[in-house]
Amino acid sequence: MNDMIRTDNLSRTYGSGAVATHALRGANLAIPKGSFTCIVGPSGHGKSTLLHLVGGLDRPTTGTVHIGGVELTSLDSSALARLRGSKIGFVFQFFNLLRTLTASENIATAMMLAGVPARQQAERARELLERVGLAEKAGARPGELSGGQQQRVAIARALANDPDLLLPDEPTGNLDSEAEAGIIALLHDLHRRGKTVVVVTHNHEIAQQAERIITVRDGRIAA
Question: What is the pLDDT of residue 153?
């Protein structure tokens, strides 16, 4: 199987009855391994819901999700958490860094949860900070970093366990033009290194460079 992601009739409804909100309706997707895909569409129409379901952060109301041939919807919570930790790297718009930890320590947290020995955590964190161009910021806390630098640390953390799949959700949404360009270049570099990258974005520059664009509107994947 060459698909990294496959969804079948994927739906997510919040609430019930008259107050039900249909965030996603019957999404069918097949995204190849090693591809660069962008998910676009108006705000509030289901883009992030789709990404969260694909990444196992949420459970679908109906349908299935397969990641690398593994059906996420059949896994219990513990098995799903292990798969997320080893196979999927998330990058969020608001970075989600722990404010009291240094850049190196933030990256190490992902490996700590995976049971990686402390010495290897430190070595891997140094390697990743160098890859994202922040080797000199290992001891800096988030409050001492610019928005672009914080997002680079967040990407390094997402790569900590060498996942096959990278899922950035609006990764340039809070950045200035210079920092935005740097993050775009970094995502393309990771793609060239073999990662499957699926980005939710309003950024036309990212979308125009993608191999495939998926449009989500009113909870449905547009034809």
Answer: 95
Q: What is the pTM for the complete model shown?
A: 0.90
pLDDT value at residue 108: 94
Write the DSSP assignment of 184-200 as a string of letters: HHHHHHHHHTT-EEEEE
Confidence check: pLDDT of 98 > 60 = yes
User: Could you give the CA distance from residue 111 to residue 216 in angstroms, rounded to a whole number?
Assistant: 33
Q: Are 159 and 134 in contact (CB under 8 A)?
A: no
pLDDT at residue 210, rounded to an integer = 93
DSSP the chain: --EEEEEEEEEEEES-GGG-EEEEEEEEEEEETT-EEEEE-STTSSHHHHHHHHTTSS--SEEEEEETTEEGGGS-HHHHHHHHHHHEEEEETT----TTS-HHHHHHHHHHHTT--HHHHHHHHHHHHHHTT-GGGTT--GGGS-HHHHHHHHHHHHTTT--SEEEEESTTTT--HHHHHHHHHHHHHHHHTT-EEEEE---HHHHHH-SEEEEEETTEE--
- Cα separation, 173 vs 93, whole angstroms: 6
Query: pLDDT digit string (tens) for 49-64?
Result: 999 999 999 999 999 9
